[in-house]
């Protein structure tokens, strides 16, 4: 247990851009686990549309910021990332996504699956 003045070790903080198999990670053009801090502000805009049969197009735009203190979170100097690619649809919803992300420190190819519960 730590006091209110003690900092939580970075490895205990939940990462904002952790890879998952269910959705493209936020700020996906940056390295995985790049943003770790106790305070997070993230905005995601997405667009997905069927183009022919089971195939669709998807576009994502992310903006975000992490900070050690809540007072350091603001709308200035947000990191941004973009992703676009193809989706495979089933039942009218995207089930598999293959996206290319750019705009941050690097670029990545992302694959994501929608789970069935």
Low-confidence stretches: 16-21
Mean pLDDT across every amino acid position: 78
- The share of residues in extended strands comes to over 45%
Number of strands: 5
Number of helices: 0
Kindly name the structural category.
mainly beta
Report strand order across the widest sheet: 1-2-3-4-5
The N- to C-terminal Cα distance equals 36 Å
Give a short account of the largest sheet: 5 strands, antiparallel
Q: What shape does the CA trace take? A: elongated
In angstroms, what is the radius of gyration?
16 Å
Q: Give the fraction of residues assigned to helices.
A: under 10%
Please trace the helix and strand order, writing H or E for each element.
EEEEE
What does the secondary structure layout of this molecule look like, with pairings?
Blueprint: E1 39-52, E2 55-67, E3 79-90, E4 93-102, E5 108-113
Antiparallel strand pairs: 1-2, 2-3, 3-4, 4-5
Q: What are the defining features of this structure?
A:
117 residues; mainly beta; five-stranded antiparallel beta sheet; 0% helix
Short structural summary:
By secondary structure, the chain is mostly beta strands. The protein contains no helices and five strands.
Explain what this protein looks like in three dimensions:
Strand 4 and strand 5 (about 110-115) form a beta hairpin. The chain contains no helices and five strands. The protein is mainly beta and about 120 residues long. The relative contact order is 0.22. Strands 1-2-3-4-5 form a five-stranded antiparallel β-sheet, with no helix packed on it.
């Amino acid at each position: 247990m730590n006091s209110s003045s003690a900092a939580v070790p970075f490895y205990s903080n939940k990462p904002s851009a952790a890879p998952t198999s269910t959705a493209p990670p936020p700020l996906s053009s940056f390295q995985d686990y790049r943003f770790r801090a106790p305070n997070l502000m993230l905005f995601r805009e997405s667009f997905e549309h069927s183009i022919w049969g089971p195939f669709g197009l998807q576009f994502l735009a992310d903006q975000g910021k992490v900070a050690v203190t809540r007072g350091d979170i603001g709308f200035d100097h947000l990191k941004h990332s973009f992703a676009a690619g193809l989706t495979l649809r089933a039942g009218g919803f995207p089930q598999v996504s293959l996206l290319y992300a750019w705009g941050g420190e690097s670029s990545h190819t992302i694959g994501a699956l929608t789970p069935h519960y």
